[in-house]
Amino acid sequence: MTTLTPDAPQAERATRTYPAYSRGLLARLLLNREAAVIVALVVVFLYALGNVQYFDGPLTVYNLLKEYAPILLMALPMTLIIITGEIDLSVASTLGASAAVTGVLVVEHDLSVPVAALVAIGVGALLGALNGFFVAYVGLPSLAVTIGSLALYRGLAEGLIQDKRVSGFPGELRSWPTDRIGDTQYPNIVLVIVVLAVLFGLLLHFTSFGRSVFEVGLSDEAARFSGVDVARTKLILFTLSGAVAALAGVYVALKSNSVATDTGSGFELKVIAGVLLGGVSIFGGRGALHGVIAGVLLIAVLNSALQLDGQGSEVIQIIIGLLLVGSVIASNFLPRIRALLPRRAVTPEVTTKTPDTGDHTRKVAQ
Amino acid sequence: MRIHSKRFAAGAALALVATLGLAACGSDDEGGSNGGGDATTVTFLPKNLGNPYFETSDAGGEKAVKEFGGKYAEVGPDTAGPDAQVSYIDTAAAQGVNALIISANDPTALCDSLNAARDAGTKVVTFDSDTDPECRDLFINQATAEGIAKVQVDMIAEQIGDSGEIAILSAAANATNQNAWIDLIKSDLEADHPNIKLVDTVYGDDDDQTSFDKTAALLADHPNLKGIISPTTVGISAAARYLSTSDAKGKVALTGLGTPDQMRDYVKDGTVKEFALWNPEELGYLSAYAGKALADGDITGKEGDTFKAGDLGEFTIGEDATVLLGDPFRFNADNIDQFHF
Prior knowledge:
The structure holds two protein chains of two kinds. Chain A is 68% helix and 1% strand. Chain A is mainly α. Helices cover 44% and strands 19% of the residues of chain B. In chain B, the strands form four sheets. In chain B, strands 2-1-3-4-5-13 form a six-stranded parallel sheet, sandwiched between helices. Chain B has a four-stranded parallel sheet with strand order 7-6-8-9, sandwiched between helices. Chain B has a two-stranded antiparallel sheet with strand order 10-14. Chain B is built from eleven helices and 14 strands. The model of chain B is unreliable at 1-6 and 18-36 (pLDDT under 50). By secondary structure, chain B is an alpha/beta fold. Chain B has helices at 5-26, 29-32, 52-67, 82-95, 111-119, 145-160, 176-192, 208-221, 233-244, 260-268, 280-295, and strands at residues 41-45, 71-74, 99-102, 123-127, 138-141, 164-170, 196-203, 225-230, 253-256, 274-277, 306-308, 314-316, 322-324, 329-332. In chain B, helix 4 (82-95) packs parallel to helix 5 (111-119) and helix 8 (208-221) packs across helix 9 (233-244). Chains A and B meet through helix 3, helix 4, helix 13 and helix 14 of A and helix 1, helix 4 and helix 5 of B.
């Protein structure tokens, strides 16, 4: 302080422009990956409405929400996990195991659907916590742990229902998740998704826990030094992931009125594809929940529009695959290209530094 | 001018999506408009694509649809499973196709979607593998389960001298038709063939390599095995391929359900003596005509209703809204060259 002349820097500050902060709130909201995905979703949806026959029919939106509901559900906790730089490949197997638990309890042991669902969700949370324990406290890479549990939890499902196919869920609760809300195109499960999306959105973007999720993703070590309990954060996230996957399992069991050993197999790739398309960095540290929801819905809408258009499954897979690869390239490659381009002279940012360093005064003096 | 990476990324992603969307949707206007006009639209949805059995049955369906001037489409998943079939049923319902001809991967898991399709005006005909009767309008039965079980038991009994250990190589563990046949095979063996012992049932999931491996495991696990019944076309040809190059060739009998084209070499080299099947082309052909008759309102699925199925003649609807194609047919060295499917 003592070496500073008090007036000079303030006067400078007032006249300088700061490129990094010069965008208004609106521009910052619009010019990011989440916005790009949302715009893409809207464009594809409107394009399909106008150009794909039957897309505007009364079944289209209902069907795609009904089929993608479990993916949307599992994408919520997966977003947080990938933001921490980890991954959970076992969600579809957890879904299968909890669907098997639900089926066996309801159909073979005559438990009511809500009770069986609670037990299944508890089992799912336990399976998730087991993943979390190995990742967070044993320190194993989540990729390895959850590839293992992907097989293990699918094995649990097979052990529970073996070669049987469990079917015949009783009662009105059976069709509740897929019943429409009034005369709309929205099945009831959408209500559950909205509630969970809001909760996960608040958790990620408006709580200190959410900030620690980003910090862990940027650097485990830095997060630890700044007082974040990294292990506990990861344990919580994997437990949530297991519980939500189990909820999705209950939904799938009721929707299909049938559980087999392969229920939901392959879903983990759809979930991760949606999360990455939604703008979450696979390296951690960056992402937003609204982008992920748009990402999953974009895949769902593309899939539905292409199918209605009569395209074969191989064409659909190629297009969605290209989209995913393209979006990953766009988000990871373009900044590097930009780094190679000549930069505009950067306005000195000295005034943003703490003003009591000697360094600062020398620079101002220049 | 500084390039804003985010703006660029946003634009690029958008352009990519728009281009892909345009390319995909614009390329196939004819295929996309299969609901227009007065022609009856018939969509075949097999258990999975790329399965020769369903390629044959669907080709029979296409032939029938061409005969009556309708519009034919074939859609389906790459791998057999009810989850994958649901979205194709949903799509067919949204397209408002007149008749959906489906081989079901699960008797109940498809019900909600099939009934939604029926509510939307689509007639649902199952063939090859049925759903619960309340989820479809008509089932085209290739042969009665009793007839299929009996012909396979008869063939294996004749080939192994009516005594010894046998095993079954099935498709997926939850395949409706397979399990029904296996139950009947078991009771048939108990009742009429006390000296034949069924020692194992394994599942090849209608996957060639899995079935091949399971055959090898069967022979290793049961050194006294005298015969294998494989009531699935994928299974029997994989098993025959394994047997034909193993020591068990000619010693372990193999029979079941196969197609002549797949089994021709193995019948000629002595690996397989006799196997059975119906004609899947006729099955698809009959299914398409049944779908047309339903869509036109000529029949409703009531027992005793009759309809004409092109060259195959007249059929009568039986119990539980089912139509029977006929008895299974035995293929052997004497007749196999007369058939090509």
